[in-house]
Design brief:
mainly alpha; 59% helix
Length: 626
Protein backbone atom coordinates (compact mmCIF):
# COMPACT_ATOMS: atom_id res chain seq x y z
CA UNK A 1 0.00 0.00 0.00
CA UNK A 2 1.13 3.54 -0.69
CA UNK A 3 1.19 6.04 2.10
CA UNK A 4 -0.56 9.38 2.10
CA UNK A 5 2.79 11.18 1.74
CA UNK A 6 3.56 9.17 -1.41
CA UNK A 7 0.25 10.25 -2.92
CA UNK A 8 0.93 13.88 -2.07
CA UNK A 9 4.38 13.57 -3.62
CA UNK A 10 2.89 12.11 -6.77
CA UNK A 11 0.34 14.89 -7.02
CA UNK A 12 3.06 17.48 -6.46
CA UNK A 13 5.21 16.01 -9.25
CA UNK A 14 2.25 15.99 -11.59
CA UNK A 15 1.50 19.62 -10.83
CA UNK A 16 5.13 20.55 -11.40
CA UNK A 17 5.18 18.71 -14.73
CA UNK A 18 2.02 20.51 -15.86
CA UNK A 19 3.48 23.84 -14.75
CA UNK A 20 6.77 23.13 -16.57
CA UNK A 21 4.87 22.40 -19.78
CA UNK A 22 2.86 25.58 -19.39
CA UNK A 23 6.01 27.67 -18.89
CA UNK A 24 7.63 26.07 -21.93
CA UNK A 25 4.62 26.80 -24.13
CA UNK A 26 4.68 30.42 -22.96
CA UNK A 27 8.35 30.74 -23.92
CA UNK A 28 9.56 31.07 -20.31
CA UNK A 29 12.31 28.52 -20.81
CA UNK A 30 14.35 29.60 -17.77
CA UNK A 31 11.41 28.99 -15.43
CA UNK A 32 10.73 25.68 -17.18
CA UNK A 33 14.32 24.51 -16.56
CA UNK A 34 14.09 25.47 -12.86
CA UNK A 35 10.89 23.48 -12.43
CA UNK A 36 12.32 20.44 -14.24
CA UNK A 37 15.41 20.55 -12.00
CA UNK A 38 13.14 20.14 -8.97
CA UNK A 39 11.65 17.05 -10.59
CA UNK A 40 14.97 15.57 -11.66
CA UNK A 41 16.40 15.97 -8.16
CA UNK A 42 14.45 12.87 -7.10
CA UNK A 43 14.23 11.12 -10.49
CA UNK A 44 17.71 11.45 -11.95
CA UNK A 45 17.31 8.22 -13.93
CA UNK A 46 14.04 9.22 -15.63
CA UNK A 47 14.79 9.36 -19.38
CA UNK A 48 11.75 11.46 -20.23
CA UNK A 49 12.60 14.12 -17.64
CA UNK A 50 16.22 14.26 -18.79
CA UNK A 51 15.07 14.68 -22.39
CA UNK A 52 12.62 17.46 -21.49
CA UNK A 53 15.30 19.28 -19.51
CA UNK A 54 17.77 19.05 -22.44
CA UNK A 55 15.16 20.47 -24.82
CA UNK A 56 14.24 23.30 -22.44
CA UNK A 57 17.90 24.25 -21.94
CA UNK A 58 18.41 24.23 -25.71
CA UNK A 59 15.52 26.65 -26.17
CA UNK A 60 16.76 28.74 -23.26
CA UNK A 61 20.06 29.22 -25.11
CA UNK A 62 18.23 30.52 -28.20
CA UNK A 63 18.74 27.23 -30.11
CA UNK A 64 22.41 28.14 -30.46
CA UNK A 65 24.12 25.54 -28.25
CA UNK A 66 23.67 22.75 -30.77
CA UNK A 67 26.79 20.83 -29.80
CA UNK A 68 25.78 20.72 -26.13
CA UNK A 69 22.26 19.60 -27.06
CA UNK A 70 23.64 16.90 -29.34
CA UNK A 71 25.85 15.58 -26.52
CA UNK A 72 22.92 15.64 -24.11
CA UNK A 73 20.79 13.59 -26.51
CA UNK A 74 23.56 11.00 -26.89
CA UNK A 75 23.86 10.77 -23.10
CA UNK A 76 20.12 10.18 -22.85
CA UNK A 77 20.33 7.44 -25.49
CA UNK A 78 23.05 5.74 -23.45
CA UNK A 79 21.00 6.07 -20.26
CA UNK A 80 18.03 4.43 -22.01
CA UNK A 81 20.34 1.77 -23.47
CA UNK A 82 19.44 2.85 -27.00
CA UNK A 83 21.64 3.53 -30.04
CA UNK A 84 20.40 6.16 -32.52
CA UNK A 85 22.39 4.64 -35.40
CA UNK A 86 20.74 1.25 -34.83
CA UNK A 87 17.07 1.71 -35.63
CA UNK A 88 16.12 -1.80 -34.55
CA UNK A 89 16.42 -0.53 -30.96
CA UNK A 90 13.37 1.69 -31.57
CA UNK A 91 10.49 -0.39 -30.25
CA UNK A 92 8.81 1.88 -27.69
CA UNK A 93 6.43 4.66 -28.72
CA UNK A 94 7.60 6.78 -25.78
CA UNK A 95 11.07 7.10 -27.32
CA UNK A 96 9.76 8.40 -30.68
CA UNK A 97 10.12 12.04 -29.64
CA UNK A 98 13.71 11.40 -28.53
CA UNK A 99 14.54 9.92 -31.94
CA UNK A 100 12.63 12.75 -33.64
CA UNK A 101 14.74 15.46 -31.95
CA UNK A 102 17.91 13.61 -32.89
CA UNK A 103 16.71 13.43 -36.52
CA UNK A 104 16.00 17.18 -36.46
CA UNK A 105 19.60 17.88 -35.47
CA UNK A 106 20.90 15.57 -38.21
CA UNK A 107 18.69 17.33 -40.75
CA UNK A 108 20.04 20.78 -39.85
CA UNK A 109 23.58 19.38 -40.03
CA UNK A 110 22.70 18.35 -43.63
CA UNK A 111 22.99 14.64 -42.88
CA UNK A 112 19.77 14.09 -44.78
CA UNK A 113 19.97 10.36 -45.40
CA UNK A 114 20.77 9.58 -41.78
CA UNK A 115 17.85 11.78 -40.65
CA UNK A 116 15.58 10.18 -43.25
CA UNK A 117 16.40 6.69 -41.97
CA UNK A 118 15.38 7.66 -38.43
CA UNK A 119 12.24 9.60 -39.28
CA UNK A 120 11.06 6.88 -41.69
CA UNK A 121 11.21 4.42 -38.81
CA UNK A 122 9.42 6.56 -36.25
CA UNK A 123 6.71 7.48 -38.78
CA UNK A 124 5.37 3.93 -38.32
CA UNK A 125 4.57 4.68 -34.66
CA UNK A 126 2.69 7.97 -35.02
CA UNK A 127 -0.85 6.60 -34.60
CA UNK A 128 -0.74 6.63 -30.76
CA UNK A 129 0.97 10.05 -30.70
CA UNK A 130 -0.85 13.35 -30.34
CA UNK A 131 -1.72 15.23 -33.53
CA UNK A 132 0.89 17.94 -33.04
CA UNK A 133 3.77 15.48 -32.73
CA UNK A 134 2.43 13.35 -35.59
CA UNK A 135 2.33 16.41 -37.90
CA UNK A 136 5.89 17.37 -36.99
CA UNK A 137 7.14 13.88 -37.80
CA UNK A 138 5.37 13.90 -41.17
CA UNK A 139 6.70 17.36 -42.05
CA UNK A 140 10.23 16.29 -41.17
CA UNK A 141 9.79 13.17 -43.28
CA UNK A 142 8.69 15.24 -46.28
CA UNK A 143 11.54 17.73 -45.77
CA UNK A 144 14.16 14.97 -45.52
CA UNK A 145 12.80 13.27 -48.67
CA UNK A 146 13.02 16.50 -50.66
CA UNK A 147 16.51 17.29 -49.35
CA UNK A 148 17.64 13.74 -50.20
CA UNK A 149 16.12 14.14 -53.71
CA UNK A 150 13.30 11.64 -53.19
CA UNK A 151 10.25 13.72 -54.25
CA UNK A 152 7.90 10.76 -54.75
CA UNK A 153 8.29 9.72 -51.09
CA UNK A 154 7.75 13.34 -50.03
CA UNK A 155 4.42 13.35 -51.83
CA UNK A 156 3.44 10.17 -49.98
CA UNK A 157 4.08 11.94 -46.67
CA UNK A 158 1.95 14.91 -47.75
CA UNK A 159 -0.89 12.59 -48.81
CA UNK A 160 -0.79 10.91 -45.41
CA UNK A 161 -1.11 14.29 -43.66
CA UNK A 162 -4.01 15.22 -45.92
CA UNK A 163 -5.81 11.93 -45.26
CA UNK A 164 -5.29 12.14 -41.49
CA UNK A 165 -5.81 15.83 -40.74
CA UNK A 166 -7.87 17.24 -43.65
CA UNK A 167 -10.80 14.88 -43.60
CA UNK A 168 -13.28 17.46 -44.98
CA UNK A 169 -12.83 20.02 -47.79
CA UNK A 170 -13.77 22.83 -45.40
CA UNK A 171 -10.82 21.90 -43.15
CA UNK A 172 -8.48 23.35 -45.79
CA UNK A 173 -10.19 26.76 -45.95
CA UNK A 174 -10.75 29.57 -43.50
CA UNK A 175 -14.03 31.43 -43.27
CA UNK A 176 -12.74 34.11 -45.66
CA UNK A 177 -11.96 31.42 -48.26
CA UNK A 178 -8.16 31.54 -47.90
CA UNK A 179 -6.11 28.44 -47.21
CA UNK A 180 -5.43 27.34 -43.67
CA UNK A 181 -1.79 27.22 -42.59
CA UNK A 182 -1.88 23.41 -42.80
CA UNK A 183 -3.29 23.40 -46.35
CA UNK A 184 -0.87 26.12 -47.45
CA UNK A 185 2.07 24.14 -46.13
CA UNK A 186 0.89 21.02 -47.95
CA UNK A 187 0.67 22.96 -51.21
CA UNK A 188 4.22 24.23 -50.77
CA UNK A 189 5.53 20.70 -50.37
CA UNK A 190 3.52 19.51 -53.38
CA UNK A 191 5.01 22.32 -55.45
CA UNK A 192 8.58 21.52 -54.39
CA UNK A 193 8.10 17.83 -55.13
CA UNK A 194 6.45 18.62 -58.47
CA UNK A 195 9.40 20.78 -59.51
CA UNK A 196 11.86 18.00 -58.63
CA UNK A 197 9.75 15.56 -60.63
CA UNK A 198 9.31 18.12 -63.46
CA UNK A 199 5.50 17.69 -63.26
CA UNK A 200 4.78 21.13 -64.69
CA UNK A 201 1.03 20.59 -65.06
CA UNK A 202 0.63 19.92 -61.34
CA UNK A 203 2.85 22.88 -60.50
CA UNK A 204 0.82 25.25 -62.67
CA UNK A 205 -2.43 24.33 -60.91
CA UNK A 206 -1.05 24.45 -57.37
CA UNK A 207 0.96 27.66 -57.68
CA UNK A 208 -2.22 29.69 -58.25
CA UNK A 209 -3.23 28.94 -54.66
CA UNK A 210 -0.30 31.00 -53.36
CA UNK A 211 -0.67 34.74 -52.83
CA UNK A 212 0.86 37.13 -55.35
CA UNK A 213 2.95 38.67 -52.56
CA UNK A 214 4.30 35.25 -51.55
CA UNK A 215 8.03 35.22 -52.35
CA UNK A 216 8.05 31.46 -52.94
CA UNK A 217 5.49 31.93 -55.72
CA UNK A 218 7.93 34.07 -57.72
CA UNK A 219 10.68 31.46 -57.34
CA UNK A 220 8.37 28.58 -58.23
CA UNK A 221 6.87 30.29 -61.28
CA UNK A 222 10.32 31.30 -62.49
CA UNK A 223 11.59 27.72 -62.10
CA UNK A 224 8.53 26.44 -63.96
CA UNK A 225 9.21 28.85 -66.85
CA UNK A 226 12.84 27.72 -66.85
CA UNK A 227 11.85 24.04 -67.10
CA UNK A 228 9.42 24.91 -69.90
CA UNK A 229 12.24 26.40 -71.96
CA UNK A 230 11.19 30.04 -71.61
CA UNK A 231 14.36 31.53 -70.19
CA UNK A 232 13.62 35.23 -70.72
CA UNK A 233 10.20 34.87 -69.13
CA UNK A 234 11.87 33.09 -66.19
CA UNK A 235 14.14 36.11 -65.65
CA UNK A 236 11.18 38.48 -65.77
CA UNK A 237 9.24 36.48 -63.18
CA UNK A 238 12.27 36.06 -60.91
CA UNK A 239 12.92 39.80 -60.88
CA UNK A 240 9.70 40.26 -58.89
CA UNK A 241 11.70 39.12 -55.86
CA UNK A 242 13.89 42.24 -56.06
CA UNK A 243 10.94 44.44 -55.03
CA UNK A 244 9.95 42.35 -52.00
CA UNK A 245 11.07 42.66 -48.38
CA UNK A 246 13.69 39.97 -47.79
CA UNK A 247 13.61 38.06 -44.47
CA UNK A 248 16.87 37.98 -42.46
CA UNK A 249 19.02 34.90 -42.90
CA UNK A 250 19.45 34.13 -39.19
CA UNK A 251 15.66 34.04 -38.75
CA UNK A 252 14.89 31.60 -41.57
CA UNK A 253 18.14 29.79 -42.40
CA UNK A 254 17.69 30.72 -46.07
CA UNK A 255 19.40 33.63 -47.80
CA UNK A 256 17.10 34.93 -50.51
CA UNK A 257 19.73 37.07 -52.26
CA UNK A 258 21.94 33.98 -52.74
CA UNK A 259 19.07 32.02 -54.25
CA UNK A 260 18.12 34.95 -56.48
CA UNK A 261 21.59 35.35 -58.02
CA UNK A 262 22.08 31.60 -58.35
CA UNK A 263 18.78 31.20 -60.20
CA UNK A 264 19.62 34.12 -62.47
CA UNK A 265 22.92 32.41 -63.27
CA UNK A 266 21.21 29.11 -64.09
CA UNK A 267 18.76 30.82 -66.42
CA UNK A 268 21.50 32.70 -68.28
CA UNK A 269 23.49 29.48 -68.59
CA UNK A 270 20.39 27.96 -70.20
CA UNK A 271 20.31 30.99 -72.55
CA UNK A 272 23.88 30.11 -73.66
CA UNK A 273 25.42 33.05 -71.81
CA UNK A 274 28.01 31.31 -69.60
CA UNK A 275 30.02 34.47 -68.92
CA UNK A 276 26.92 36.25 -67.60
CA UNK A 277 26.12 33.13 -65.56
CA UNK A 278 29.63 33.23 -64.08
CA UNK A 279 29.16 36.87 -63.09
CA UNK A 280 25.92 36.16 -61.21
CA UNK A 281 27.45 33.11 -59.54
CA UNK A 282 30.30 35.21 -58.21
CA UNK A 283 27.68 37.56 -56.76
CA UNK A 284 25.84 34.58 -55.26
CA UNK A 285 29.01 33.19 -53.66
CA UNK A 286 29.87 36.58 -52.17
CA UNK A 287 26.34 37.00 -50.78
CA UNK A 288 26.29 33.45 -49.37
CA UNK A 289 29.70 33.68 -47.70
CA UNK A 290 28.91 37.07 -46.15
CA UNK A 291 25.56 35.89 -44.78
CA UNK A 292 26.76 32.55 -43.40
CA UNK A 293 30.05 33.73 -41.87
CA UNK A 294 30.12 32.66 -38.19
CA UNK A 295 30.03 35.41 -35.55
CA UNK A 296 33.27 36.49 -33.91
CA UNK A 297 32.21 35.00 -30.55
CA UNK A 298 31.16 31.34 -30.77
CA UNK A 299 31.19 30.37 -27.04
CA UNK A 300 33.22 27.28 -27.84
CA UNK A 301 30.47 25.74 -29.99
CA UNK A 302 31.83 23.85 -32.98
CA UNK A 303 28.88 24.98 -35.10
CA UNK A 304 29.67 28.67 -34.73
CA UNK A 305 27.11 29.58 -32.07
CA UNK A 306 24.40 30.26 -34.64
CA UNK A 307 20.78 29.06 -34.39
CA UNK A 308 20.36 25.41 -35.32
CA UNK A 309 18.27 26.23 -38.39
CA UNK A 310 21.10 28.38 -39.78
CA UNK A 311 23.90 25.82 -39.37
CA UNK A 312 23.37 24.15 -42.73
CA UNK A 313 22.22 27.27 -44.55
CA UNK A 314 25.41 27.80 -46.55
CA UNK A 315 25.16 26.85 -50.21
CA UNK A 316 28.85 27.46 -50.94
CA UNK A 317 29.64 24.09 -52.50
CA UNK A 318 26.54 24.04 -54.71
CA UNK A 319 27.46 27.52 -55.93
CA UNK A 320 31.10 26.70 -56.74
CA UNK A 321 29.83 23.59 -58.57
CA UNK A 322 27.58 25.78 -60.73
CA UNK A 323 30.39 28.30 -61.23
CA UNK A 324 32.69 25.52 -62.43
CA UNK A 325 30.16 24.42 -65.05
CA UNK A 326 29.67 28.02 -66.23
CA UNK A 327 33.43 28.63 -66.55
CA UNK A 328 33.86 25.34 -68.42
CA UNK A 329 31.23 26.36 -70.99
CA UNK A 330 32.85 29.79 -71.23
CA UNK A 331 36.15 28.17 -72.30
CA UNK A 332 38.02 28.93 -69.06
CA UNK A 333 39.04 25.43 -67.96
CA UNK A 334 41.54 26.38 -65.24
CA UNK A 335 39.03 28.56 -63.38
CA UNK A 336 36.43 25.82 -63.83
CA UNK A 337 38.88 23.21 -62.51
CA UNK A 338 39.57 25.23 -59.35
CA UNK A 339 35.83 25.48 -58.64
CA UNK A 340 35.08 21.83 -59.33
CA UNK A 341 37.99 20.53 -57.24
CA UNK A 342 36.50 22.48 -54.33
CA UNK A 343 33.07 20.95 -54.98
CA UNK A 344 34.45 17.40 -55.28
CA UNK A 345 35.38 17.51 -51.58
CA UNK A 346 31.68 17.24 -50.79
CA UNK A 347 30.20 15.53 -53.87
CA UNK A 348 32.90 12.90 -54.38
CA UNK A 349 30.34 10.22 -55.34
CA UNK A 350 29.01 12.26 -58.27
CA UNK A 351 30.25 10.66 -61.54
CA UNK A 352 29.06 13.64 -63.56
CA UNK A 353 31.30 15.94 -61.52
CA UNK A 354 34.32 13.67 -62.12
CA UNK A 355 33.53 13.83 -65.86
CA UNK A 356 33.41 17.64 -65.77
CA UNK A 357 36.80 17.71 -64.03
CA UNK A 358 38.21 15.53 -66.82
CA UNK A 359 36.70 17.83 -69.44
CA UNK A 360 38.44 20.79 -67.78
CA UNK A 361 41.74 18.92 -68.08
CA UNK A 362 41.09 18.06 -71.74
CA UNK A 363 40.20 21.63 -72.67
CA UNK A 364 43.22 23.01 -70.81
CA UNK A 365 45.44 20.50 -72.65
CA UNK A 366 44.06 21.53 -76.04
CA UNK A 367 44.48 25.23 -75.30
CA UNK A 368 48.10 24.74 -74.20
CA UNK A 369 49.27 22.12 -76.69
CA UNK A 370 47.16 22.78 -79.77
CA UNK A 371 46.37 26.49 -79.54
CA UNK A 372 42.59 26.17 -79.24
CA UNK A 373 41.00 29.54 -78.64
CA UNK A 374 39.01 29.87 -75.37
CA UNK A 375 35.29 29.59 -75.95
CA UNK A 376 35.54 27.65 -79.22
CA UNK A 377 35.02 24.02 -80.06
CA UNK A 378 38.03 21.75 -79.93
CA UNK A 379 39.47 21.64 -83.42
CA UNK A 380 37.36 24.44 -84.85
CA UNK A 381 39.21 27.24 -83.06
CA UNK A 382 42.66 25.72 -83.31
CA UNK A 383 45.31 28.15 -84.51
CA UNK A 384 46.74 26.99 -87.83
CA UNK A 385 50.41 27.09 -87.07
CA UNK A 386 52.92 27.76 -89.82
CA UNK A 387 54.12 24.70 -91.71
CA UNK A 388 57.69 25.90 -91.39
CA UNK A 389 59.46 26.04 -88.06
CA UNK A 390 62.51 27.86 -89.43
CA UNK A 391 65.26 27.85 -92.04
CA UNK A 392 68.99 27.13 -92.20
CA UNK A 393 71.48 28.69 -94.61
CA UNK A 394 70.92 31.28 -97.30
CA UNK A 395 70.44 31.53 -101.03
CA UNK A 396 70.52 28.28 -102.97
CA UNK A 397 71.74 26.51 -99.83
CA UNK A 398 68.77 27.51 -97.70
CA UNK A 399 66.95 24.55 -96.11
CA UNK A 400 63.45 24.77 -94.64
CA UNK A 401 62.64 22.89 -91.40
CA UNK A 402 59.08 21.57 -91.27
CA UNK A 403 57.23 21.98 -87.99
CA UNK A 404 57.09 18.74 -86.03
CA UNK A 405 53.75 17.25 -84.99
CA UNK A 406 53.16 17.60 -81.22
CA UNK A 407 53.89 14.39 -79.34
CA UNK A 408 50.97 12.45 -77.91
CA UNK A 409 52.27 11.81 -74.41
CA UNK A 410 52.23 14.53 -71.77
CA UNK A 411 55.58 15.83 -70.64
CA UNK A 412 54.34 17.27 -67.34
CA UNK A 413 56.15 15.73 -64.36
CA UNK A 414 53.22 16.10 -61.93
CA UNK A 415 51.65 13.30 -59.91
CA UNK A 416 48.17 12.36 -61.09
CA UNK A 417 47.04 12.24 -57.46
CA UNK A 418 47.60 16.01 -57.09
CA UNK A 419 44.64 17.98 -58.51
CA UNK A 420 45.98 19.82 -61.55
CA UNK A 421 44.34 20.34 -64.97
CA UNK A 422 46.51 17.68 -66.63
CA UNK A 423 45.65 14.65 -68.72
CA UNK A 424 47.02 12.37 -65.99
CA UNK A 425 44.47 13.75 -63.53
CA UNK A 426 41.79 13.48 -66.22
CA UNK A 427 42.57 9.76 -66.51
CA UNK A 428 42.18 9.38 -62.75
CA UNK A 429 38.91 11.35 -62.70
CA UNK A 430 37.43 9.28 -65.53
CA UNK A 431 38.44 6.07 -63.78
CA UNK A 432 36.57 7.27 -60.67
CA UNK A 433 33.51 8.05 -62.79
CA UNK A 434 33.59 4.56 -64.35
CA UNK A 435 33.83 2.91 -60.92
CA UNK A 436 30.86 4.89 -59.59
CA UNK A 437 28.73 4.15 -62.67
CA UNK A 438 29.62 0.45 -62.58
CA UNK A 439 29.46 -1.99 -65.44
CA UNK A 440 26.79 -1.74 -68.11
CA UNK A 441 23.77 -3.94 -67.45
CA UNK A 442 20.09 -4.38 -68.13
CA UNK A 443 18.88 -3.31 -64.69
CA UNK A 444 20.53 0.05 -64.18
CA UNK A 445 20.21 1.29 -60.60
CA UNK A 446 19.82 5.04 -59.93
CA UNK A 447 23.11 6.85 -59.39
CA UNK A 448 23.48 9.70 -56.92
CA UNK A 449 24.59 12.93 -58.58
CA UNK A 450 24.08 15.33 -55.68
CA UNK A 451 23.33 18.18 -55.50
CA UNK A 452 21.01 17.26 -58.41
CA UNK A 453 18.25 14.66 -58.56
CA UNK A 454 19.32 11.01 -59.02
CA UNK A 455 19.78 10.18 -62.70
CA UNK A 456 17.52 7.67 -64.45
CA UNK A 457 18.79 4.42 -66.02
CA UNK A 458 18.81 6.07 -69.47
CA UNK A 459 20.78 9.00 -68.12
CA UNK A 460 23.28 6.56 -66.61
CA UNK A 461 23.72 5.10 -70.10
CA UNK A 462 24.33 8.46 -71.76
CA UNK A 463 26.68 9.49 -68.95
CA UNK A 464 28.67 6.29 -69.41
CA UNK A 465 28.98 7.03 -73.13
CA UNK A 466 30.45 10.46 -72.37
CA UNK A 467 32.89 9.02 -69.84
CA UNK A 468 34.11 6.29 -72.21
CA UNK A 469 34.59 8.64 -75.16
CA UNK A 470 36.57 11.10 -73.01
CA UNK A 471 38.61 8.26 -71.51
CA UNK A 472 39.55 6.87 -74.93
CA UNK A 473 40.70 10.32 -76.07
CA UNK A 474 42.76 10.89 -72.91
CA UNK A 475 44.53 7.54 -73.21
CA UNK A 476 45.40 8.30 -76.83
CA UNK A 477 46.89 11.64 -75.78
CA UNK A 478 48.88 9.90 -73.04
CA UNK A 479 50.27 7.39 -75.53
CA UNK A 480 48.38 4.35 -74.20
CA UNK A 481 46.64 2.83 -77.26
CA UNK A 482 45.73 -0.43 -75.48
CA UNK A 483 43.45 1.28 -72.92
CA UNK A 484 42.21 3.71 -75.59
CA UNK A 485 41.15 0.78 -77.80
CA UNK A 486 39.46 -0.95 -74.87
CA UNK A 487 37.42 2.16 -73.99
CA UNK A 488 36.53 2.80 -77.66
CA UNK A 489 35.24 -0.77 -78.05
CA UNK A 490 33.18 -0.46 -74.87
CA UNK A 491 31.81 2.83 -76.16
CA UNK A 492 30.66 1.29 -79.44
CA UNK A 493 28.61 -1.36 -77.58
CA UNK A 494 26.53 1.13 -75.57
CA UNK A 495 22.77 1.16 -76.07
CA UNK A 496 22.09 4.93 -76.07
CA UNK A 497 25.06 6.01 -78.16
CA UNK A 498 24.79 9.38 -79.88
CA UNK A 499 25.83 9.46 -83.58
CA UNK A 500 28.66 11.92 -82.81
CA UNK A 501 29.96 9.58 -80.11
CA UNK A 502 29.75 6.63 -82.50
CA UNK A 503 31.90 8.56 -84.97
CA UNK A 504 34.43 9.37 -82.23
CA UNK A 505 34.45 5.78 -81.04
CA UNK A 506 35.41 4.54 -84.51
CA UNK A 507 38.01 7.30 -84.97
CA UNK A 508 39.61 6.57 -81.60
CA UNK A 509 39.59 2.82 -82.23
CA UNK A 510 41.19 3.33 -85.64
CA UNK A 511 43.93 5.57 -84.20
CA UNK A 512 44.64 3.11 -81.38
CA UNK A 513 44.87 0.20 -83.82
CA UNK A 514 47.18 2.23 -86.03
CA UNK A 515 49.49 2.91 -83.09
CA UNK A 516 49.45 -0.84 -82.40
CA UNK A 517 50.59 -1.47 -85.99
CA UNK A 518 47.26 -2.98 -87.03
CA UNK A 519 46.50 -0.77 -90.03
CA UNK A 520 44.18 -3.25 -91.73
CA UNK A 521 41.88 -3.39 -88.70
CA UNK A 522 42.04 0.40 -88.37
CA UNK A 523 40.76 0.87 -91.91
CA UNK A 524 37.66 -1.21 -91.07
CA UNK A 525 36.55 1.48 -88.59
CA UNK A 526 36.73 4.31 -91.13
CA UNK A 527 33.56 3.93 -93.19
CA UNK A 528 32.06 6.98 -94.98
CA UNK A 529 28.52 6.31 -93.68
CA UNK A 530 29.60 7.44 -90.20
CA UNK A 531 29.58 11.08 -91.35
CA UNK A 532 25.88 11.16 -92.24
CA UNK A 533 24.74 12.18 -88.75
CA UNK A 534 26.74 14.01 -86.08
CA UNK A 535 23.94 14.87 -83.62
CA UNK A 536 24.88 14.91 -79.95
CA UNK A 537 22.01 12.84 -78.59
CA UNK A 538 20.68 9.35 -79.17
CA UNK A 539 17.39 9.01 -81.11
CA UNK A 540 15.37 8.33 -77.94
CA UNK A 541 17.04 11.02 -75.83
CA UNK A 542 15.92 14.67 -75.67
CA UNK A 543 18.62 17.13 -76.80
CA UNK A 544 20.21 19.51 -74.31
CA UNK A 545 18.96 23.11 -74.54
CA UNK A 546 22.45 24.40 -73.72
CA UNK A 547 24.69 24.97 -76.73
CA UNK A 548 27.24 22.17 -77.19
CA UNK A 549 30.59 22.93 -78.83
CA UNK A 550 31.82 19.83 -80.59
CA UNK A 551 34.13 18.89 -83.41
CA UNK A 552 33.29 17.76 -86.03
CA UNK A 553 30.00 19.63 -85.73
CA UNK A 554 28.64 19.07 -89.25
CA UNK A 555 28.38 16.16 -91.73
CA UNK A 556 30.86 17.96 -94.02
CA UNK A 557 33.40 18.25 -91.21
CA UNK A 558 32.87 14.62 -90.24
CA UNK A 559 33.45 13.49 -93.83
CA UNK A 560 36.63 15.56 -94.08
CA UNK A 561 37.89 14.13 -90.78
CA UNK A 562 37.18 10.58 -91.95
CA UNK A 563 38.90 11.19 -95.29
CA UNK A 564 41.99 12.54 -93.57
CA UNK A 565 42.20 9.54 -91.23
CA UNK A 566 41.70 7.16 -94.15
CA UNK A 567 44.50 8.96 -96.02
CA UNK A 568 46.81 8.51 -93.00
CA UNK A 569 46.11 4.78 -92.89
CA UNK A 570 46.65 4.46 -96.67
CA UNK A 571 49.93 6.34 -96.34
CA UNK A 572 51.18 4.05 -93.58
CA UNK A 573 50.24 1.03 -95.70
CA UNK A 574 52.26 2.49 -98.58
CA UNK A 575 49.20 3.23 -100.77
CA UNK A 576 50.33 6.76 -101.57
CA UNK A 577 48.19 7.23 -104.70
CA UNK A 578 45.02 6.28 -102.85
CA UNK A 579 46.00 8.60 -100.02
CA UNK A 580 46.58 11.52 -102.42
CA UNK A 581 43.24 10.89 -104.14
CA UNK A 582 41.53 11.27 -100.77
CA UNK A 583 43.34 14.54 -100.02
CA UNK A 584 43.03 16.22 -103.40
CA UNK A 585 39.23 16.59 -103.03
CA UNK A 586 39.63 18.54 -99.79
CA UNK A 587 40.02 22.32 -99.62
CA UNK A 588 42.72 23.02 -97.02
CA UNK A 589 41.40 26.52 -96.40
CA UNK A 590 37.92 25.30 -95.41
CA UNK A 591 37.25 25.53 -91.65
CA UNK A 592 35.94 21.93 -91.59
CA UNK A 593 39.23 20.51 -92.85
CA UNK A 594 41.73 19.37 -90.18
CA UNK A 595 44.92 21.53 -90.22
CA UNK A 596 47.06 18.36 -90.46
CA UNK A 597 45.85 17.84 -94.05
CA UNK A 598 48.45 20.25 -95.44
CA UNK A 599 51.27 18.48 -93.57
CA UNK A 600 50.18 15.12 -94.95
CA UNK A 601 49.95 16.58 -98.47
CA UNK A 602 53.53 17.89 -98.15
CA UNK A 603 54.74 14.48 -97.04
CA UNK A 604 53.04 12.69 -99.94
CA UNK A 605 54.45 15.08 -102.53
CA UNK A 606 57.94 14.80 -101.06
CA UNK A 607 57.66 11.00 -101.28
CA UNK A 608 56.66 11.36 -104.94
CA UNK A 609 59.53 13.78 -105.56
CA UNK A 610 57.19 16.55 -106.78
CA UNK A 611 59.27 19.45 -105.47
CA UNK A 612 57.42 22.04 -107.54
CA UNK A 613 54.14 21.09 -105.89
CA UNK A 614 55.86 21.16 -102.48
CA UNK A 615 57.12 24.69 -103.14
CA UNK A 616 53.64 25.72 -104.28
CA UNK A 617 52.06 24.41 -101.08
CA UNK A 618 54.67 26.20 -98.94
CA UNK A 619 54.18 29.49 -100.82
CA UNK A 620 50.42 29.20 -100.42
CA UNK A 621 50.39 28.44 -96.68
CA UNK A 622 53.67 30.07 -95.57
CA UNK A 623 54.22 33.00 -97.97
CA UNK A 624 57.06 34.40 -95.83
CA UNK A 625 59.31 31.53 -97.03
CA UNK A 626 58.92 32.13 -100.79
Amino acid sequence: MSSKSDKNSGNSDKELAVKAKSEFNKGNYGNCVQILEKLTADKSCDVKLAHNKAVAEFYKGGLKKTESFQKALKAIFEKAKLRPERLETLEDVDTCVLYYNYAVILYHLRQYRAALGIVSKISRYIEPLDDGTAKKICWLLAECCLSAHQPAQALDAVRFIEAKFVTKPEDARKKDGTLTSLALRMHRYRLRAGLQLHNLSDVASDVRLLADTDMSRAFIESYSEYLSGRGRSAVSVLNRVAGMTLPPYRATGEHVATMYYNNLACIHHYLNKPNVAGYYLRRAIAENDAATAPPAKTDGDRYGGVPVHAIGGSRHYELVYNAGIAFLHAGRPKQAFDCLTEAIQVYHTNPRLWLRLAECCILAHRQEKHGDEPGTAAGVGAKRQSLIQGSIGAGVHRKLILRATPTAASSDQISAAIPNPTLEFASLALRNACLILGEDGEGESPVTVEPANPVTPDQVQTLRCSVLSASSYVHLCLGDPVLALEDARKLLTQRLLAPAQRLLGHLYAAEALLLLDRADEALEHLTPDLSADVSLHAPDVAPSPVEQRWYPNSPVGARMCLQYNMAVVRTIRGELELAWNLLRTMNPAAPEVPPQVVQLALYLQLKHGNLDIVRSIIKQHSPQYR
